């Protein structure tokens, strides 16, 4: 295994560990469920929401069927992305894929353990609240942004020239 691939697996494992540790602490010792909402700043609260669907709560009304279909889909995508990560030819692409895989697995673990994904971070402005999210969602977003960067300005662009 190359050093680049090892780095990818370390980033992926660290993402899953950080996501699960934050959820364990917020749901357990901190007990966000009884404290919420906790105002951290004038624009950021800690809350507890359970998302049974996908982004923005879509597909969340079909119960256990959705839970297991989404879990299976997340694991299948993570496996496919891991194959891509192993074959990646540069570090940026490897790390981007590792963030997406780690985020997908973090949320899949929530679906298996809790039946839904726990979201905590609530940014708001002028009474408008962005959808609550968690570290796994942040990792997926960062990974996708890095994938786009690589496609337009990195190795993906160089390969199409």
Outline the structure in words.
- The chain is an alpha+beta fold and 161 residues long.
- The chain has 6 helices and 4 strands, in the order H-H-E-E-H-H-E-E-H-H.
- Strands 1-2-3-4 form a 4-stranded antiparallel beta sheet.
- The chain is globular and about 50 Å long.
Elements, N to C (H/E): HHEEHHEEHH
Mean pLDDT reading: 91
**Main sheet?**
4 strands, antiparallel
How would you sum up the global shape? globular
Strand order of the largest sheet: 1-2-3-4
Radius of gyration: 17 Å
**Gap between N and C termini:** 29 Å
Q: Outline the low-pLDDT stretches.
A: none
Q: Treating each run of at least 4 consecutive H or I residues as one helix, how many helices? A: 6
Q: How does the SSE layout of this entry go?
A:
Elements: H1 3-27, H2 32-35, E1 38-41, E2 44-51, H3 63-87, H4 91-114, E3 117-125, E4 128-129, H5 135-153, H6 155-160
Antiparallel strand pairs: 1-2, 2-3, 3-4
Overview features:
4-stranded antiparallel sheet; globular; 4 strands
Question: TL;DR?
Answer:
The protein has 161 residues and is of the alpha+beta class. 64% of the residues lie in helices and 14% in strands. It is globular, with a radius of gyration of 17 Å.
């Amino acid at each position: 295994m190359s050093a680049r691939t090892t780095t990818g697996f370390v980033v992926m494992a660290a993402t899953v560990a950080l996501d699960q540790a934050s959820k364990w602490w917020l749901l357990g010792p901190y007990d966000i469920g009884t404290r919420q909402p906790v105002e951290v700043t004038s624009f950021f609260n800690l809350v507890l929401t359970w998302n049974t669907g996908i982004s923005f709560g879509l597909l969340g009304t079909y119960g256990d069927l959705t839970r297991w279909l989404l879990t299976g889909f997340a694991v299948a995508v993570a496996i496919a992305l891991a194959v891509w990560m192993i074959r990646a030819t540069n570090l940026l692409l490897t790390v981007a894929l590792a963030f997406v895989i780690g985020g997908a697995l973090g949320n899949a673990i929530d679906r298996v353990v809790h039946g839904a994904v726990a979201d905590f971070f609530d940014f708001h402005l002028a009474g408008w609240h962005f959808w609550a999210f968690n570290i796994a969602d942040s990792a997926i977003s960062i990974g996708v942004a890095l994938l786009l960067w690589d496609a337009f300005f990195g190795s993906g662009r160089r390969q199409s020239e």
